[in-house]
Amino acid sequence: MPTARYNHLDRRTSQLAARFLPSPKARYSAEEYDYVRGFVLLVHAEIENYVEDMVAGVLTAARDRWIDHQRLSRCVTTLMMYNDKQLAPPASLAKQSPNDTLDATVKNVIKKHGDYVTRDNHGIRQKNLLRLLLPIGVSDGDLDPVWLGDMDTFGALRGLVAHTSAKRVQTPPDPGISQRTVNDVLSGLLQLEPLLVALKRK
Asked: DSSP secondary-structure letter at 120?
């Protein structure tokens, strides 16, 4: 069963499609193509925010489990694997830094990834998704390569729309193809969502 967050994303993308996408026809006006560009940009923002919210939820659950029960979740274990800080035992307890304890390290890796999610992530292409999802415990085998390709396609389309003047675009985004790509992206997110929900409990 989809989460309330996914249902919100689904409703929002449907609203944007109804508002911006013209009815299918042989030719579209320049104004209608501008509406399609607006659809691509706004839906991309909604999808990116959804993924970031879901990852942030896993991080929050992992942090709370550690603070409340001192339990290392799958998320924290994987974050530690991706952590680039290598520690050696101190020569004496007097030289032990407060920042080098297990408690401080766990909290730091969670915060570090949370900062990346909220401040430094800028997209939904494959490289962005792997950077968001693998460190929180999603396995590479859990990710459908076809869906990752769909995300790459949609992310590239968004980049083209956002960074190229309409005057220079030779082939404007097709309304039908844009809608189908969004549908494929949402379908893949719906398949991924149970894994993210489960990670909040592991």
From this structure: I
For residue 136, give the 3-state DSSP assignment. helix
Residue 123's nearest CA partner among 165, 164, 157 is 157
Give dist(CA 32, CA 36) in Å, integer.
6
- What is residue 131's three-state secondary structure? helix
Alpha carbon distance 79, 110 (integer Å): 7
CA dist., res. 40 & res. 49, Å (int): 14
- Listed in order, strand segments (DSSP E) in the chain are none
Cα 11 to Cα 64: distance, rounded to the nearest angstrom = 30
In angstroms, rounded to a whole number, what is the distance separating the alpha carbons of residues 47 and 53? Answer: 10
SS3 9: helix
Q: Which residue would you say has higher pLDDT here, 79 or 85?
A: 79
Give the number of other Cβ atoms within 10 Å of residue 11's Cβ: 10
Q: What is the pTM of this model?
A: 0.89
Best CA proximity match to 190, nearest among 2, 8, 17: 2
Q: Which of 163, 156, 164 is nearest to 123 (CA)?
A: 156
- pLDDT per residue as tens digits for the range 85-139: 666 666 666 666 777 788 998 999 999 999 999 999 999 999 999 999 999 999 9
Residue 173 and residue 28 in contact, taking contact as beta carbons nearer than 8 Å: no
Q: Please count the other Cβ atoms lying within 10 Å of the Cβ belonging to residue 127.
A: 12
